[in-house]
Amino acid sequence: MMDLLGLSEWAAIMLSLRVAVVAVICALPLAIGVAYLLARKRFFGRQLLNGIVHLPLVLPPVVTGYLLLVTFGKQGPIGSFLEQVFGISLGFRWTGAALAAAVMAFPLMVRAIRLGIEAVDPGLEDAAATLGASRTRVFMTVTLPLILPSILAGAVLGFAKALGEFGATITFVAAIPGQTQTIPSAIYGLLQVPGSEPAVVGLVTVAIILAMGALLISEWLSHRMARRVGR
Amino acid sequence: MLRICVQENQGQFGLDVDINAPAGVTAIFGRSGSGKTTLVNAIAGLSRPDAGKIVVGDAVLFDSAARVNLPPPHRRVGYVFQDARLFPHMSVRRNLTYGGDHDAAHVIEILGLEPLLDRRPAGLSGGERQRVALGRALMCDPQILLMDEPLAALDAPRKAEILPYFERLRDETRVPIIYVSHDVSEVARLATTLVVLDEGKVAISGPVGQVLSSPDVVPLLGTRTAGAVIVTRVAGRLLDDDLTELQFSGGRLLMPGQLGEIGQLLRIRIPAQDVILAREAPTGMSALNVLPVTITEIRPGRGPGVAVGLRAGDDQLLARVTRRSAGRMELAVGQQIYAIIKATAVGPEDIGG
């Protein structure tokens, strides 16, 4: 299989992995925070927040990509701010691909983690509070360990989504080989070129292996964790 | 020692109580929905009453007038929940020390927790869980201990196994305890003070012996559960007949089995429906315990029954007879009569240290 993959295919694979890993790592803390808010707090605008979080799930990915382009692109309000103040450029860079992947994966991560938080008995948190634990300590020592399996599930789901993300990415950052060309856009690109089926087969195989691998590892880890939290 | 004055309105349900509790175990008794848990949650700070004042010793936990409302972690309240609420991802040892390790060795000793320390909550029995929950609450050095029906989820043998630990705790710590229950036997065994809640209000309160032997309490507790509590001393044994002789101010009682040690104080509860009244000292009957008593109060109930308050020596007893019998016997306050108590009327769950 290795000889099916040329240099540019390997570049797409490594880029996809980097984009997906960075997207999940950056989005995870925010997803935990938002999931906690949605699961445990009643506040004004909760439904609005819920709607915004889920928007990337229901919008056409091209629309999400377009919205990213006009806000985070070079001319966009946030994009130009980031570029001027921090020197971070997102448009047509791998960082932009990571942002697009994170935005698309975000609702899936929030949903998985929120289910986990809702399954934790708030009585346990009350008990910890009466034992003198601050809110932060309650969260870190009771809530967080109990929802680790669902955080993991959310992370794997997000990783798989980030690996496969196509529409928003190609709209926001195009498919520049070595820069923003991930596995899906590389496959799509190769399909336009006659005689490149071997490379396509190689990339498709890699995509399947990555997805299956992530799934198996997460099953195994969550099984171990579930045993550790005594369920 | 402890002042709990709380007003709260939750739609149809209202809570309006003002309780002054002395040291020792204050039992909050009432049917489900009478506001017991709401009251305890207010003390712990898990719910916020509309108005009121909660003071433990010198510490003001809540005072709506002065806008004081300490958050739960700052209240130093040890809360033992009905469902234990142990942290499932921690060992028993880590559960115990989560809030602190005050007096750890002693707590582990009196609750018999040593063999459980390295186990996980999922592998514990209901009784063991409650012991761990109690130990955990004690180790955070609470200034008050709240116990919300800690035995309600347990079957009778588990209860019997854990009650002696509670009695020992009551006798060995100086922490005031609020004990919520709807089980009269538990209350009679453990409580020093009893507060009966009815529809969010204090119906009656006072020393447990006094409250339980008051005829007023019969309709609140239900005719089957009402009964006086007296403190007796183990005076002797009738080994041949497997009976224990108990002495109290009103005379002596014979109870089945080998109870306590000679000289030990035992509390026993005598259900009102198991006390028979007679105008003359009966002869030729099987009941062993006949006590001369004076009628202090006669209170007709809503049904066919009458609650009769009796004084035996310095103690109060309570009997429940039908209105018809009371009329036929011409019972009257101040009358000297005889109370007959079957030795088997007092079950093992009604006898405590």
Q: What's the number of domains of chain B?
A: 2
Q: Which parts of chain B are unreliable, with pLDDT below 50 for 5 consecutive residues or more?
A: none
Q: What is the number of independent domains of chain A?
A: 1
Number of helices of chain A: 10
Structural class of chain A: mainly alpha
Overall average residue pLDDT of chain B: 89
The most extensive interface, with participating residues per chain, is: A-B, 20 and 27 residues
Write the topology of this structure.
The complex is a heterodimer of chains A (231) and B (353).
Chain A: H1 7-40, H2 46-58, H3 61-72, H4 77-85, H5 94-119, H6 122-130, H7 135-164, H8 167-173, H9 183-191, H10 197-228
Helix pairs in contact in A: 1-5, 1-7, 2-5, 3-8, 5-7, 5-8, 6-7, 7-10, 9-10
Chain B: E1 2-10, E2 13-21, E3 25-29, H1 36-44, E4 51-56, E5 59-63, E6 68-69, E7 77-80, H2 92-96, H3 104-110, H4 126-139, E8 144-148, H5 156-172, E9 177-181, H6 184-190, E10 193-198, E11 201-207, H7 208-212, H8 218-221, E12 227-238, E13 243-248, E14 251-256, E15 265-271, E16 275-278, E17 289-300, E18 305-312, E19 315-322, H9 323-328, E20 336-341, E21 351-352
Parallel strand pairs in B: 3-9, 3-10, 7-8, 8-9
Antiparallel strand pairs in B: 1-2, 1-4, 4-5, 5-6, 10-11, 12-13, 12-15, 13-14, 15-21, 16-20, 17-18, 17-20, 18-19
Protein name (chain A): Molybdenum transport system permease
Pfam family, one (chain A): BPD_transp_1
Domain ABC transmembrane type-1 (chain A): 13-216
What does this structure look like?
The complex is a heterodimer of chains A (231) and B (353). Chain A has 231 residues and is mostly helical. Chain A has 10 helices and no strands. Chain A has one domain: MetI-like fold (Orthogonal Bundle), CATH 1.10.3720. Chain A has helices spanning 7-40, 46-58, 61-72, 77-85, 94-119, 122-130, 135-164, 167-173, 183-191, 197-228. Chain B is α+β, with helices and mostly antiparallel strands. Chain B has 2 domains: 2-212, P-loop containing nucleotide triphosphate hydrolases (Rossmann fold, 3-Layer(aba) Sandwich); 227-270 and 287-343, RNA polymerase II/Efflux pump adaptor protein, barrel-sandwich hybrid domain (OB fold (Dihydrolipoamide Acetyltransferase, E2P), Beta Barrel). Chain B contains 9 helices and 21 strands. Chain B has helices at residues 36-44, 92-96, 104-110, 126-139, 156-172, 184-190, 208-212, 218-221, 323-328; strands at 2-10, 13-21, 25-29, 51-56, 59-63, 68-69, 77-80, 144-148, 177-181, 193-198, 201-207, 227-238, 243-248, 251-256, 265-271, 275-278, 289-300, 305-312, 315-322, 336-341, 351-352. Chain B has a 6-stranded mixed β-sheet with strand order 7-8-9-3-10-11, sandwiched between helices. A 5-stranded antiparallel β-sheet of chain B has the order 2-1-4-5-6, covered by helices on one side. Chain B has a 5-stranded antiparallel β-sheet with strand order 14-13-12-15-21. In chain B, β4 and β5 (59-63) form a beta hairpin. The mean pLDDT of chain B is 89. Chain A binds chain B through residues 121, 123-124, 126-134, 141-142, 145-146, 228-231, and chain B through 44-46, 71-79, 81, 83, 85, 87-89, 98-100, 120-122, 136-137, 140.
